[in-house]
Amino acid sequence: MHSTRQTIIFVLIMTSIVALVLSLMSTGLKPIHDKNEAVYNKKAVLAAVKDQLKGDFDALSDDQVDGIFNEQIEQKVMNMKGDFLSEEDVRAAGYKGGKAEHLDMAKEKKKDEQDRILPIYVFTKDGGEKFYIFNVRGMGLWDEIWGNIAFESDLNTIAGVAFDHKGETPGLGAEIKDNKDWAGQFIGRKIYGEDGTFKSVGVIKGGAKNPMYEVDGISGATITADGVAEMMKRGLKYYEPFINSVKKG
Amino acid sequence: MADVQIAKKESAISFGKKERKLLVDPLNDNNPVTVQVLGICSALAVTTLLDKAIVMSIAVIFVCAFANLFTSLLRMYIPKQVRMIVQLIIIAFLVTVVELSLKAIDYNIYKELSVFIGLIITNCIIMGRLEAFASANNPWRSLLDGIGNGLGYAIILIIIAMIREFFGKGSLLGYKLLGPTSDYMLTIPGYQPNNLMVLFPSAMFVIGVLIWGHRAWNRKLIDIS
Fold first, then answer.
1. Measured between CB atoms, does B96 come within 8 Å of chain A?
2. pLDDT at position B224
3. What was the ipTM of the complex prediction?
4. Which of A81, A107, B7, B19 has an alpha carbon 20 to 30 Å from A175's alpha carbon atom?
5. Yes or no, beta carbons of A170 and B48 under 8 Å apart
6. Is B63 inside any structural domain?
7. What residues in B contact A167, CB-CB < 8 Å?
């Protein structure tokens, strides 16, 4: 039998060793973790314009992702009024890197609506054609969902979308990420009506009736699909000041 | 009660019949999933795709093997009153090592497995082996037992994942094999993958059928239960 004293000493020594090893490991691997996370986030942005990229998107190496991001993407950060933020302002908002890629949209979503800041990525294709990528975030059935939405240079026609989610059900809600055909429906849809009013894209249970502004829902995932429609309507509206300023020239 | 027993003095590292049994038994006669019905929760959750299941299997084999080894090394010193907590610390330590390594090696898989790597801590196979075996056997045998049970879990996980990915998505490891369009290797016009296979309940059915099949095939199992 061990005495209480022995027990306490044993546990103290053991937990100290474990804590030491784990913290060393965590600190040692931090640079690699940060790099991986940065590439992952960049790839999520590029996924929205993957049809415009050369080669197999899934096979892009980390360096290639970095390369495309550095050479072909211009990053901007905007506040809710439509003013651009300088790198200093972004740093002051709590993001050390100072660029759009460093924003943590989950953190932004917790702020009051008027205090949020938004990333804008302008992708220039090899031929010089410009694409605008916006970030939207909302709620699915179980947890948050988000996506990057690419627009053609008219800032009306969708060129590609890439959604992701935190905890939707595989085979149902998770289809917004896994089912490329479903996400592909958004390509070519428009967010402004012919009279110039903002409409966004609806996700319609039972099948889209107006192919200009609607896509089919996902059977078994009505709430997630409604979440996608809601987040696009609200999230893209945030970008209206920017869209209008670009349209004016 | 897992009173610490002094293991019989045998040459520390040998590989005889008994050792072989430790490795092979969990694969068939004493499989942790289909015979003992442990570790079902993760077998349901991470078997939608084969690559996820393989990574999860490697993680569990690693954790199970080393948790067994460490517990066995410490078995004379672990105070009885806190032994379960100490075992949990060992498991949690190893799981965190796996999580940190995976995050550095393959971030995509890490993101996809998300909480399930952390949930290895609660995998009853591992805790069960520590209590039933490692706290009363020498380190070498405990290591083998850990690897064996890890493999026994892995083999079932991989079979389930193969069935689910193949029938649910028409692919294996992301290679498109069977589907309605021409980018699949075998094209059957109008073929629809069975989406039910991607959903959680299908894992339950597949495990059930596997257990049944295993028992029908291995007659020894019918008598012991």
1. yes
2. 56
3. 0.79
4. A107
5. yes
6. yes
7. 114
